[in-house]
Write a structure and sequence with these properties.
The chain has 78 residues and is low in regular secondary structure. The protein is built from one helix and three strands, in the order βββα. The chain has a domain of 42 residues. A three-stranded antiparallel beta sheet has the order 1-2-3, with no helix packed on it.
């Protein structure tokens, strides 16, 4: 199976398992030759929240603290 350039396809730049094109979930090299025999799954890394430091309990902030400066407080409230 080779890349059908008459159908929509994506160009891949950079190192991606040697693939230069993607079409219908299948990856193709720079000559349009299929890489592998089934669709490759590209897994995107998921960012994880940093753990809380030892001894600290995370809390949700529901309201910003009031500014100490009266002039600043007046500007923020208008």
């Amino acid at each position: 199976m080779s890349l059908d350039k008459t159908k929509p396809h994506g160009l891949i730049y950079g190192a991606a398992n040697g693939a230069s094109f993607e079409q219908d979930g299948m990856f193709y090299d720079s000559n349009g030759v299929l890489i592998g025999d089934k669709p490759l799954r590209v897994v995107k890394p998921v960012a994880k929240a940093a753990p809380a430091p030892a001894g600290v309990t995370p809390t949700a902030v529901t309201k910003a603290p009031a500014p100490a400066d009266a002039q600043l407080a007046a500007q923020l409230s208008s």
